[in-house]
Amino acid sequence: MKILLLASTAACLFAAPALAQDTAQDDTDPNVIVVLGQGLPDTPGTPAYSTVEIDREQLVTTASGRLEDALGNVAGFQQFRRSDSRSANPSAQGATLRALGGNASSRALVLLDGVPVGDPFFGYIPFSAIAPERLGTIRVTRGGGSGPFGGGALAGTIALESADAATLGLVQASALANHRGDTELSASVAPELGDGYAVIHGRWDRGDGFFTTPRNQRMPATARASYDGWSAGARIVQQVGDLEVQARALAFADDRVLRFEGADSSIEGQDVSLRVVSRGPWQVDAIAYGQWRNFTNVVISSTRFVPVLDQKDTPASGIGGKLEVRPPLGDAHTLRLGADYRRSEGDLFEDAFSAFTGARTEQRFAGGVNTDLGLYVEDDWELGALTLTGGVRADRYTIREGYYRALNGAGTVIQDDAYADRSDWEVTWRAGALYRASDALAVRGAYYTSFRLPTLNELYRPFVVFPVTTLANAALDPERLEGWEIGLDLTPAPGLRLAATYFDNTVEDAIANVTLAPNLRERRNLDAIEANGVEFAASFDSGLLSLNTTLAITDAEVVGTGFAAPLDGNRPAQVPEFAASLTAAYEFVAGGRLSATLRHVGEQFEGDQEDDALPAATTIDLFGQVPLWRDLSVVGRVENLTDEDVVTRNQGGSIDLGAPRTVWLGLRWGY
Known about the structure:
By secondary structure, the chain is mainly beta. The chain is built from 5 helices and 42 strands.
């Protein structure tokens, strides 16, 4: 299947006519300029839901140069832990919004050019594989229901859009190094050819990293968080008659060391996708994609400092597609009819070892297949200053072929479970209204539902963060969210935008890692997680000076009965009550920019018992770019200027820290 999809994609590329420039005229309206490389335009009802947009300037001026850092400018965005992709275990890098965390799987749906990027087995996001300098914009929709985005958009959607050739320029390149000797190399070539363009890009990040372990807890086996990751890809966009064809391929790998010598983890992946867009009277957006991923991880005993678990192979694949049609119904209505499908398959192979003898004590095998077929219809109705939007979605899902098998050191089967297949329908819906009272004021409100299937990881894979073991649970039910929100958008003066949203979201059957005994947890469905709060966003741009700020205040708590009764009223694990970000930038000359980002994250708890606190942390980042000659600039970046101790893990007093003060210096061409 993998070879077939790659061959099919290549055949489409070579058979296609000449490549395209970045703009083309829409045959239906000669006055409308269409930018190639994107999907169909946003519908009129899109602003009815709470959205924040991250523009390209913010993407290419982060202090760390990493995607998750740019997303951190949206208060309410969070990963399971505060670490970035240089010093986090990849399987802990799920993405969520609105303080609806609690475990490491993504509760937000992350899309790259319309394609889900979450790992098919774990649900984590391979942040290190997506270079922010290759993106044009990011739109974060908090809440909003699944709608046309697809199953999995439980807490919202993060839509990443690739930059086109005009934005990238013919050549971009950068080389930076920090004061510890870590390096970051990136380059792209984006020629405009005929009726379209091509982009070829690559990036390589490597370094010995920093000590995540506090000085007073280090020992001879303690290691720096070294990392070595690369990504390479190509994208071709072309006009073929009345159709626009977009083909993309990406390959990546990332190796990391976490806390102790020998505690190695790795991810790798190969992704391909093909998108066909028709912008005629009958608008069509069709996507097909394939993903192949793998993950490995070695767990080191924190007392004897020898391997106790080798998660040596976790191959997984994701195959899917989407078809959306917008028939011509006149100026007042924008109707969307669509279907999407995703099949996730994966297996786990791991060995457990004695910390005393080094002998293999157990072999474990687990895996399964999840599928989701979704059908949706949605309509936006424009009534002068009022826009109404609403839709319904039906998902037919299956959880099947699940198994868990364990052998002892002698090769004797000690557990051999095959889980019953199950399937069901989930019906979700959303509705919203947007009223533009004036050019300066818009009022919006929405009510929505959504759902998320448990991942293969949650269903079948136990894991160890020594000495705590967390068991899988093949009986997990899907998570279901019901929520509403109301908000205001103000534009009181040119260049100034203010937004405020109050929301109330409830996740029923929320999946969490529940403590059963000391050093033993299991994934369970809680009764619910309830979260309500306020979100603020403001931006100002005078041409030379710009300000962007977001703030989220959230009251989140667990609703628990039965086994979860002791957790009732607790704040969910890894969830802060308060988060805020402020970035100020000054463009002192064409191509020259100075910026500073102040970010604060409130106190969080490591687990479900409201113990092992992660203290609040405030960081300051700096960025500067000064043009030297033509398209060549010198770049300086400072992460965590005040060298704040950002606690990312606290397990009974065993602490991990995030990035300390880090100074980068280098050159850029063509940004």
